[in-house]
Hints:
Number of strands: 22
Shape: globular
Radius of gyration: 30 Å
Mean pLDDT: 85
Amino acid sequence: MLMTLRHIIQEVSSAEDFSEALNIMVKRIADALATQACSIFLLDRHHGEYVLAATQGLNAKAVGKVRIPINKGLIGLVGEREEPINIDDAKEHPRFLYVPEVQEEAYRAFLGTPVIYHRQVLGVLIVQQQEPRRYDESEEAFLVTLATQLAAIIAHAEATGALVTLLESAKEKRHELVYSGVPGAPGIGMGCGVVVYVPFDLDAVPDHQPDDVDAEITLLKSAFTTVREELRLLGERLYPSLPAEERALFDVYQRILESAELSNEITDNIRLGNWAPGALREVIQAHVRRLESLENEYMRERATDIRDLGLRLLVCLQKNDRATPKYAERTILIGESLTPADLAEVPEGCLAGVISATGSGNSHVAILARAMKVPTVMGVGETPFHELQDKEIIVDGYYGQIYLSPSPSLRAEFQRLMQEEQKLDAELDEIRDLPAETKDKHRIGLLVNTGLGADISISLATGAEGVGLYRTEIPFLMRDRFPSGEEQRIIYRQLLASFAPRPVIIRTLDVGGDKPLPYFPIVEDNPFLGWRGIRITLDHPEIFLSQARAMLRASEEFNNMRIMLPMITDVSEVDEALRLLKKAYLEVCDEGYNIVMPQIGVMIEVPAAVYQARALAKRVDFLSVGSNDLTQYILAVDRNNPRVANLYDALHPAVLRALIQVVENGHQEGKHVSICGEMAGDPVAVMLLLAIGFDSLSMNASSVGRVRWVIRHMTKKKAAKLLHEVLSMESSVMIRCHMELALERAGLGHLIRAGR
């Protein structure tokens, strides 16, 4: 092997160019290992894909054309794990991705190793064989050794520009651009891009075809006139107190605005087919780039002045209500940092997908999108959003991919997948009214998480047995002031009436962290470890008591309400909250309301609560694990940060052991223990939650049917066996792969995609 290795390296080193070197390597590796296929996939970081760069054994015509998204297939898995993967039958693996163009139908055995240079994955090197078998240790070591040599070759090609040239030539062969983000809400959305940008952010303004060119030019002239007058008045007011050089700055601004040059440039761009804000952005950015490239420091600093003028003009343009987006019949909503209000403003029935530059799959916008059943991709910050306006877009919310201007064949493939989704939904609808009961007759409650009035009908349609989490902060977030006690009572009463006699768990106000109230600002360096949840409401008992009284008044006649306390870290917080709740109860009773004191529970969301679960259970009626925050705090991973989103996985061994401890402690005190959050709605995780012993699961309405399907096709005995197996594993990747394979073998593989 050493002699063979030396010959391969010598031959590759003498290759005329980078492409030839790759072709030599795949041919010689295939010969050396007597295997039928060898291929090199290079990572195109800009598009988040592995590009087939060379192959011996697969379809040669697919070179440069086939692109595998970084989180798909076995290629993606090798890159994710950054270690070799050796499989005797690739087609049986849950991550196997069938790509017709490569013509690999005959191959079963698979060995892949990452190509890594200075801790950075550059690509994946694979070998394949028709007969099912595992490559032996010497073959694996040989491939790993060659991968290290290949890494140096790719790094050199990157430094000389040869890698960029190869990837650019491959890009010309593709029909559509693909951008990668983080899965936000499952599903496939197809429609027209509509960009929502932050007001008064020049860089975020999209291009847009004007409906009336003359009207745009008139608005631009009006903006120039307004800014000139504003600066004149500002200058007159400030001149007496300004030094001469600062007064000169105002004079420069006025000269720029009064000269026809800037106005004419923007007008020309409007006539070329861009609306006034987009034309303004183009011209200002061009001037800023030119000034910043100059060597003269004084002139470079003038770029700030031009940018400031551009922003002043934009403010005037946007004060006209013309900045309101024009929604398409099938709108793909796109924004730098979307809010729940942005989603709510899209006309009913028109929202087909959501793309956000910031956030992760566990951001509250993503959670809301899942509740609305809108396919969503988060954390795509590198995407040039202004280029997506009015473009045809496919949103793959399962894998976090965005396809811009898709080819007919790709469009047809996604339409087929959408039809499969509809067929699965029809099958799930048939079991909607059946209990979530395993084959060996173990029953578990299925409830929904909600926070919007519009969710009620959707939740009821799923056959949910109640509400496991009502987020009271959403009505607070959608107002410009604290809602009155009566406004809250009406909201809660509508909810309780809709679900009666089924139980409804209402969580007390949980703001702070990633849910700041606009009229109750909280500025902290680390809001997730700061003033949030129960900490705020106990410090402001007037807020807590007002909400508690509204809840209690709303429960009259129905008596199906339960109250839950968020972000508990100490038993003293529970004791104080119980005191306030009893006070509110007595006050409401004195008002003449005939109500029953509701059950009180706490959320287990931080490690401190895990270790005090039994002490907490002694004080309250039930425990509910908040899987999103608990995972975040145990793993020290900000779930809204796309940079570390790959580290956030509720199937981490530490999280599973924490869940086991909570359930055991709660049951020792005879208390009901539930879990809410994204983990509860993940078909891959459900079997483990069943084995751990949770009494009920609470999830987004869109997940209820799939979770019910999994439970009805599983036995608790089998679930217990799987839990025992994964508790011996040391990483979430191993556990998730093991559970996906278990679903596949149980005939439930079609739910794996649905659960992503």
